[in-house]
Design goal:
The chain has about 160 residues and is mainly beta. It has one domain: Immunoglobulin-like. The chain is built from two helices and eleven strands. The strands form three sheets. The protein has a six-stranded mixed beta sheet with strand order 2-1-4-9-6-7, covered by helices on one side. Strands 3-11-10 form a three-stranded mixed beta sheet, with no helix packed on it. The longest helix has 15 residues. It is globular and about 40 Å long. The chain starts with 8 loop residues before the first helix and ends with a strand.
């Protein structure tokens, strides 16, 4: 009997990655909560910022965000064959999420540790930056960072 599948393997893997990030605590880091969300955020005015995860490069290499403003950060893995991720614990501890949409699945969570995208997939991260600094992001897939897959997210006041 053929039963309809609720999640493709890629969607389920991405969802499990996000959920596993919620379960892992990291020593010395304060975990963002919804209490961090500034009052009065108008999500209708969220600025969309896009970043491509290509073979061994983030495009653009640097993204600039402002503290206490809402953003829809759209990450798209344009590779036909490679999985890519976006990692930087400090960055993920400097923002609070309203939600993440990945593979058609909406996850309501204030915090994740990293985000993995299968080939030809995308994710929309609805977030508000809370802490200003420059964060070095990278792809942790073996060999990708060594080949130059790193970039920066600058959060300004």
């Amino acid at each position: 009997m053929n039963r309809p599948r609720l999640f493709s393997a890629g969607r389920l893997a991405a969802l499990l990655l996000i959920i596993s990030g919620l379960a892992r605590g990291e020593a010395g880091h304060e975990t963002p909560t919804l209490d961090w969300m500034p009052e009065g955020i108008d999500w209708e005015k969220a600025e969309t910022v896009s970043m491509l995860l290509e073979d061994h490069v983030f495009t653009p290499e640097e993204v600039v965000l402002k503290v206490n403003r809402p953003y829809k950060l759209v990450l798209t893995n344009v590779s036909d064959r490679a999985t890519h991720d976006l990692v930087d614990l400090e960055f993920f501890h400097s923002v609070v999420f309203k939600q993440i949409t990945i593979g058609g699945v909406v996850v309501n969570t204030p915090h994740v540790h990293s985000l993995e995208l299968k080939p030809n997939s995308s994710a929309s991260l609805y977030l508000v930056p809370i802490k200003s600094a420059e964060y070095e992001i990278y792809c942790s897939v073996p060999g990708h960072r060594d080949e130059g897959m790193e970039g920066y997210i600058l959060i300004e006041n």
